[in-house]
Write a structure and sequence with these properties.
Layout lengths: L1 E7 L6 H13 L4 E7 L10 E3 L23 E5 L3 E3 L4 H9 L4 E3 L15 E5 L4 H9 L9 H6 L6 E3 L8 E3 H5 L1 E3 L2 E3 L10 E3 L13 H8 L2
Parallel strand pairs: 1-2, 1-4, 2-3, 6-8, 9-12
Antiparallel strand pairs: 4-7, 5-12, 6-7, 10-11
Length: 223
């Protein structure tokens, strides 16, 4: 069984988790169980199972709970809730299932602080990184750790399958890879390459404010 898990805490409206899970379900033929790690379980629709945080933290640090040994048994596919799914990516998921690496991800869009590892999409077997969860607990408050969870996790992830090496159009970051800049002005593309399957809306702007973009409207607002 494949477990699709999102994390929706703090300032994210629960509609973000609901839209990602429902969009995945409408496109994929893979049998998955739907879970959301959240501090607001009562807001979830009945078909998404709540995973109450084992250690409530802030923002992206809540993702570290994914590595707890008591996460749902089996393979975990994790996606950031601000990702817009544009089309079926079952082929890439089946590729992940065939890999021998301990974890699959997509390279960070800007190689943040020289770190290639990105936590926006993860694929791994439940429980194998419990030692990282324990290290997180032992490390105390990491809220001000420069670079955040990705930079903290990167050095510990030594056996990684970087999916973009094989699937360069699987996921693209809207702000850093698809948009252009004119000074301080961020110019978002009216159209994107049809081969892109996941649009990562990290930072600002978020999908709820992008209805003017047809590829966001049809794959997020209208689902």
């Amino acid at each position: 069984m494949l477990n699709l898990i999102t994390v929706c805490t703090d300032d994210y409206p629960m509609i973000y988790a609901e839209k990602l899970h429902s969009r995945f379900a409408s496109l994929s033929t893979i049998d998955v169980k739907h879970f959301c790690l959240t501090d607001r379980p009562s807001e979830l629709p009945h078909w998404i199972n709540a995973l109450t945080p084992f250690t409530k933290s802030y923002g992206w640090w809540n993702k570290i709970n994914l590595f707890h040994k008591d996460m749902p048994e089996g393979m975990i596919l994790y996606l950031d809730v601000d990702i817009v799914i544009t089309q079926n990516f079952d082929h890439e998921i089946k590729f992940m299932q065939e890999q021998k690496s301990s974890i699959c991800c997509v390279s960070d869009a800007i190689n943040w602080r020289g770190n290639k590892f990105s936590s926006s999409l993860l694929f791994f077997r439940s429980g194998i990184f419990h030692h990282i969860y324990l290290k997180f607990i032992e490390s105390g408050d990491l809220t001000d750790f420069e670079g955040g969870d990705q930079v903290w996790l990167g050095p510990m992830m030594t056996d990684v399958c970087y999916l973009d090496d094989t699937f360069p159009f699987l996921k693209k970051n809207l702000k850093f890879q698809l948009a252009t800049r004119n000074g301080e002005e961020l110019r978002l593309p009216i159209a994107i390459d049809k081969r892109i399957k996941l649009i990562d809306c990290s930072g600002e702007p978020k999908p709820h404010s992008l209805a003017r973009l047809g590829y966001v409207r049809s794959n997020w607002h209208d689902v």
